[in-house]
């Protein structure tokens, strides 16, 4: 006989025993981790969706909060941006395991069952920590209020911008005497500028990147120019579609012309990289500021050009929310208020990521004013083009998911602009007809939750 | 001999009506006595993780439930009515069906050819098998990302090698095709393995006898190999149809979780995900899942029915 091998049963038994022992070990380790933090009085669990430069800035802000508030510990978790984040947040709130504080896009609040998945802010408590309504843009603050209660505490405004290379634009004669991009006020002027820029662009890159085939950006850019024309998507009560197909067609033709006139392309070339490699312009979110600054480019950034007269550029906002907890209150809740107020008030660090701070006093801060190109596009907050306040709207929401590809199909030329405008109306009508799953009612009608 | 035969084997054990004198009741008791406790752990898990969720999903499909899990109301057949009247659902179903139509024949032919190759090649057999099967071991995200790079119009290998200028993933005419190509490369290994096993199970004496009778290679292929592979081919086709209808991960990875150019790669599973986890319409998402479940079950049952008919034909 061969030497005794361990029996199958024995092996299985030991694996099981190891697994059990291991889980106890983990539990113990976990306990000791919370014990380390136990010299603090409260522990605020905080979820956010910031990675990259934003993530590093947020961590730096949390560290300075910890240093300033040794009695309050922060357990922060960074989750994957986009829909997976919102799903986790919704289910955590539904299952009563929500964190004490979280970050959300302002436009997603109406669809997030304020009152059921979100708890309102205690405005008096915020005031105690030095945050008042008067310190915010009134339009922004109003978007965060549902049924008279504040559900989101705005942290920033992030805008779609027209980035331009100073070196290329100077050669094309597009800079004013002050060295800034001379402003254009009509599509003709804009395309004339592009024509001049095209001659100055060197190398195998296009003149401007407009992310023609990217659904989210296509929707944001469309909304910017459509708002410049004075167009709206939904009636104030959110029940009727008010999309003006003539105006929409005008915008779609404008966007499409960038490709037909040979200034831009839609064949998967990364617009940001092209800009670094010499494109004159690129339309991008302000979060690309650290990328372009890191590449040591000579560049500037303005809100999207007001080609249809009235300036408007798409903006969305990050805000702090209180995910629903059945027993919200007490020291932990106060800690959440304290933390959110601190971060909102000390947002100069946040502005390094390109965002416009929502807390107005920050805008007068010398440190903020010295940030370039940040202070160049701060006017974007005076001309915000925002998504309609419906349950299906907001960053990466159902509206963007459904209407974005439709716009992109016109941009790249596989659908005619007028037909696309009609399809956009159709998409909106279908969405309005859908019941808000959180309310049992249609469209925006109720932020009023049970 | 093949997987298929083990699947139909219980039919042979079934007592013939002539010898079966037990009442159904005693038969049940006897079976429970012998096997009941052995299958109990499985049954418990099966009930907990399959039956219960299916039942709950069925119930939810008749409600307007949302993701918060509270306040669901019975709405009858509303969700189903909406689904059948919704062009988005039909589009998504169309994309999944079209994908299936492209993938299944290609994979069957390709897997068969690769299996023949690996079976007949004399040198470094293990290397061939490994090469053909290895991609199947990759997670879908890896396969999807890899091919996203290969299909990159500016820097990708495909355009470079073939001297093309095709924006594979960003135009409607090629986006789904790119997913098909990725899927072929990624999953052909599994069917290849089934074919290879079946090839190795064909007794040599059949070929020897045929060779003695003067059959050439072509005759042996057509009259021995192909008929002997009939069962396994049926299995491969069915498994591939079921897997292809459920296409999801590689498609969304390759399109960065979007619906593709002009929504041309939004598959049925992706549509369900959007409704359930972007729109939070859990009731409606359950209804379309049930519709999909019925469709897939019909394919599986259809195959069983065909098989039984064929068995009867043989008898």
Notes on the structure:
The complex is a heterodimer of chains A (450) and B (315). Chain A is of the alpha+beta class. Chain A folds into 2 domains: 41-157 and 317-369, Periplasmic binding protein-like II (D-Maltodextrin-Binding Protein, domain 2); 161-313 and 390-442, D-Maltodextrin-Binding Protein, domain 2 (3-Layer(aba) Sandwich), CATH 3.40.190.10. Chain A is 42% helix and 15% strand. Chain A contains 16 helices and 17 strands. Chain A has helices at residues 8-36, 52-68, 83-94, 123-128, 138-143, 166-171, 187-200, 215-228, 245-260, 271-276, 289-294, 330-345, 348-351, 366-369, 398-411, 417-433, and strands at residues 42-48, 72-78, 101-105, 118-119, 145-146, 149-150, 153-154, 156-165, 208-209, 281-285, 299-303, 313-316, 318-323, 356-357, 384-385, 435-436, 441-442. In chain A, strands 8, 9, 10, 11, 12, 14 and 15 form a 7-stranded mixed β-sheet that branches. In chain A, strands 1, 2, 3, 4, 7 and 13 form a 6-stranded mixed β-sheet that branches. The longest helix of chain A has 29 residues, at 8-36. Chain A starts with 7 loop residues before the first helix and ends in an 8-residue tail after the last strand. Residues 27-37 and 441-450 of chain A have low confidence and may be disordered. Chain B has 2 domains: 22-50; 79-314, Orthogonal Bundle (MetI-like fold). Chain B has helices at 3-8, 10-13, 24-60, 78-84, 87-120, 125-133, 140-150, 157-162, 172-201, 204-212, 217-228, 230-245, 249-254, 268-277, 282-314. In chain B, α5 (87-120) runs antiparallel to α12. Chain B is flat. The two termini of chain B are 19 Å apart. The model of chain B is unreliable at 1-15 (pLDDT under 50). Chain A binds chain B through residues 82-83, 86-87, 90-91, 93-95, 111, 113, 116-117, 213, 215, 266-269, 392, 396-398, 401, 404-405, 408-409, 412, 414-415, 434-435, 437-438, 440, 450, and chain B through 64-71, 73, 152-154, 165, 167, 169-172, 257-263, 274, 277-284.
């Amino acid at each position: 006989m061969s030497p005794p091998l361990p029996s199958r049963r024995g092996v299985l038994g030991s694996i099981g025993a190891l697994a059990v022992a291991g889980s106890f070990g983990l539990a113990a380790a976990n306990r000791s981790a919370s014990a380390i933090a136990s010299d603090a009085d409260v522990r605020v669990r905080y979820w956010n969706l910031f990675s990259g430069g934003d993530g590093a800035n947020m961590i730096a802000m949390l560290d300075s909060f910890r240093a300033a508030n040794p009695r309050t510990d922060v357990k922060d978790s960074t989750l994957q941006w986009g829909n997976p984040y919102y799903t986790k947040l919704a289910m955590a709130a539904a299952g009563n395991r929500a964190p004490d504080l979280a970050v959300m896009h302002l436009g997603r609040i109406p669809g997030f069952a304020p009152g059921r998945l979100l708890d309102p802010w205690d405005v008096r408590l915020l005031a105690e920590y030095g945050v008042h309504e008067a310190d915010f843009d009134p339009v922004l603050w109003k978007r965060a209020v549902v049924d008279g209660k504040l559900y989101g505490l705005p942290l920033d405004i992030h805008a779609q911008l027209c980035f331009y290379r100073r070196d290329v634009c100077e050669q094309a004669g597009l800079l004013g005497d002050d060295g800034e991009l001379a402003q254009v006020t009509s599509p003709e002027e804009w395309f004339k500028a592009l024509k001049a820029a095209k001659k100055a662009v060197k190398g195998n890159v296009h003149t401007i990147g407009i992310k023609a085939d990217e659904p989210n950006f296509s929707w944001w850019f469309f909304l910017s120019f459509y708002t410049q024309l004075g167009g709206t998507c939904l009636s104030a009560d959110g029940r009727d579609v008010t999309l003006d197909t003539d105006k929409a067609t005008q915008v779609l033709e404008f966007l499409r012309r960038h490709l037909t006139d040979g200034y831009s392309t839609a064949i998967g070339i990364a617009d940001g990289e092209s800009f670094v490699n010499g494109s004159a312009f690129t339309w991008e979110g302000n979060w690309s500021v650290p990328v372009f600054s890191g590449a040591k480019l000579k560049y500037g950034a303005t809100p999207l050009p007001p080609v249809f007269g009235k300036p408007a550029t798409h903006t969305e906002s990050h805000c702090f929310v209180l995910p629903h907890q059945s027993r919200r209150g007490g020291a932990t809740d106060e800690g959440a208020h304290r933390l959110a107020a601190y971060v909102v008030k000390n947002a100069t660090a946040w502005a390094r990521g390109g965002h416009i701070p929502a807390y107005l006093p920050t805008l007068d801060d010398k440190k903020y004013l010295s940030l370039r190109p940040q202070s160049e596009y701060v006017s974007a907050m005076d001309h915000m083009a925002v998504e309609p306040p419906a349950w299906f709207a907001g960053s990466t929401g159902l509206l963007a998911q459904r209407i974005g590809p439709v716009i992109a199909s016109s941009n790249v030329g596989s659908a005619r602009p007028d037909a696309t405008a009609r399809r956009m109306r159709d998409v909106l009508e279908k969405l309005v007809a859908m019941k808000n799953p959180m309310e049992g009612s249609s469209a925006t009608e109720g932020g009023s939750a049970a | 001999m093949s997987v298929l035969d083990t699947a139909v084997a219980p039919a042979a054990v079934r007592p013939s009506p002539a010898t079966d004198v037990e009442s159904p009741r005693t038969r049940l008791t006897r079976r429970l006595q012998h096997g009941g406790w052995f299958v109990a752990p499985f049954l418990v898990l099966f009930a907990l993780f399959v039956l219960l969720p299916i039942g709950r999903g069925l119930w939810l499909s008749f409600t307007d439930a949302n993701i918060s899990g509270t306040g669901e109301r019975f709405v009858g057949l509303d969700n189903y009515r909406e689904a059948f009247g919704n062009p988005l659902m039909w589009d998504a179903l169309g994309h999944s069906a079209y994908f299936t139509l492209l993938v299944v024949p290609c994979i069957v032919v390709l897997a068969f050819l690769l299996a023949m190759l690996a079976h007949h090649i004399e040198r470094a057999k293990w290397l061939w098998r490994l090469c053909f099967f290895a991609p199947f071991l990759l997670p879908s995200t890896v396969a999807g990302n890899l091919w996203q790079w290969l299909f990159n119009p500016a820097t990708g290998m495909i355009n470079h090698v073939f001297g093309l200028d095709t924006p594979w993933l960003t135009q409607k005419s090629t986006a789904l095709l790119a997913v098909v190509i990725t899927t072929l490369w990624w999953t052909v290994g599994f069917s290849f393995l089934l074919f290879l096993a079946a090839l190795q199970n064909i007794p040599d004496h059949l070929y020897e006898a045929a060779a003695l009778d003067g059959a050439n290679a072509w005759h042996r292929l057509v009259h021995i190999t192909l008929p002997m592979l009939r069962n396994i081919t049926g299995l491969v086709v069915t498994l591939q149809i079921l897997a292809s209808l459920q296409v999801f991960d590689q498609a969304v990875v390759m399109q960065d979780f979007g619906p593709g150019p002009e929504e041309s790669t939004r598959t049925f599973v992706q549509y369900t995900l959007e409704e359930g986890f972007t729109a939070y319409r859990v009731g409606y998402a359950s209804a379309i899942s049930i519709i999909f479940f019925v469709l897939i079950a019909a394919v599986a049952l259809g195959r069983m029915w065909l098989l039984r008919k064929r068995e009867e034909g043989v008898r």
